[in-house]
Amino acid sequence: MTRYTKRTITYCIFSLIVVYTASCSSHIKPVPAGSGSVKSRSVGHSKQKSKAELAILKSQKIAEKKAWAAKRRKQHAEKKRKLLLARKKALQKLKRQRISQSRGSKRRKNNRYKGIRKKHGSARWRTDRKYALTGDFSASPAAHRFVQHMAQSYQMDPNYLNKLLSQARDLKRVALLKPANRVRKPSVRRNSRGGSWSRYRRYFITPRHIHGGVQFWRKHAVTLNRTYQQYGIPPEYIVAILGVETIYGQNTGRTRVLDSLSTKAFRKGRRNRFFRNELEKFLLMAQREGLNPLTLKGSAAGAIGLCQFMPSNVQPLGVDHNNNGVCNLWEPNDAIGSVANYLYRHGWQRGGIVAVRASSSGKAYRKLRSGYKRKYTLARLRKKGVVPQGRISGSVRFLRMSTYQGDELWLGGHNFYVITRYNHSAKYALAVHQLAQELKRRYHGGIRIAER
User: Fold this and answer.
1) 53, 64, 78, 245: which one is catalytic?
2) Which tens digits make up the pLDDT trace of 243-290?
């Protein structure tokens, strides 16, 4: 095919296309200018619609977030209002109880000791009405089992026990409701690596303990001398124990014993079984001695009286020293006799040495284990360079007390160990010994005052 023929065919095809296009366009309506094609219009409309929907969804999400935040603020405000209301009610309840207790103490102004009332017959421990366990411990299975145990073992009225325990307060719950008015500053200890004995000693060997102890000794000299003749316990050690425990009755505790023991007995804890036994002995003591369990106060651990006995020690070791038929540890005479009986029953030796100072040559004594549990012979201690500065014999306890100036060495005798039966601490026993010596010096006319 020649070149001319190809051109002719191409021209004919192009002419046919033009004619066909013109014929088709004559049947189509004209489209307004600027409107675009159908496809372009639909695409633009869909894009505009999707943008509008996104804007609406975005505004809806913002509104939902604002509503959720407003709801959370409202819930938080309501929770805060309920907490403040609960705190206010708890404080009002405590205030009413304090007012009622103060009024009760005024009505009982003829009693020798506040908060202690005698029982008027056995009907006080029984009630004709039925009571269910309510209050802070109503949801505690241990409290319900305790009531059943007391009713079965000691024939106590379960309705009375329910009524009594319903009035017991959960001290941990009360502590959470109390507003924190003050912020405790972190304690700063000087030379915290040493000086533990110096810090411990300054709490108990003070002019307040010494002057108060001498006055207490003079006031109860007849009872203390009679106790010494009966049990063989020197008066200065009885007075010193009462001074270390409660400052001669000035600080017997501000917590109701029923509340402290119930909290530790019915809350989950490591020693709740021990405190359930103490609560049992406390109720039996109150029933036996005719005391009101709702008014008796003691320490946070449940210790009671001038001598801070746990309730389980009252019956076996407490003494009615004034012979009035009641062992009342808030009464000084009974407290004196009970302390003497406690030490006597644990093996106090009449005229025995409690503790003496010791000196050392060298540092070989540091290899020895110190404490009230381990005994050494004087010969073995001398080999380590430890020599007693006073009269002592037999097996001794080697005590290494840390002070700010260095180690302070002491040797404790058998009676030192007996004092640790009252409180299982070498520092406690040594504080009692040193306070006793200061009291003895001041009572018999000495002028030396304990170092602060």
Assistant:
1) 245
2) 999 999 999 999 999 999 999 999 888 889 999 999 999 999 999 888
Tokens of 248: 């001669």
Token output for 21: 């296009």
Backbone angles phi, psi at 192, to 5 degrees: -65, -15
Q: Is 245 a catalytic residue?
A: yes
CATH architecture observed for domain 130-167+253-304? Orthogonal Bundle (1.10)
Residue 19 burial class via C-beta count within 10 angstroms: exposed 0-12, middle 13-18, buried 19 and up: exposed
Is 317 in contact with 338 (CB distance < 8 Å)? Answer: yes
Look-up: residue for tokens 């021209």? 11
- DSSP 8-state symbol, 294: T
389-444 pLDDT, tens digit each: 999 988 999 999 999 998 999 999 999 999 999 999 999 999 999 999 999 999 98
Pick among 3.10.20.310, 2.40.170.10, 3.40.30.10, 1.10.530.10: CATH of 194-250+320-349+430-452: 1.10.530.10
For residue 356, the 8-state DSSP code is: E
d(CA 321, CA 343): 15
Tokens found for residue 103? 């009024």
**Distance between CA 184 and CA 447 in Å, rounded?**
39
DSSP string, 113-155: STT-----SGGGG--SS-----STTTT-HHHHHHHHHHHHHH-
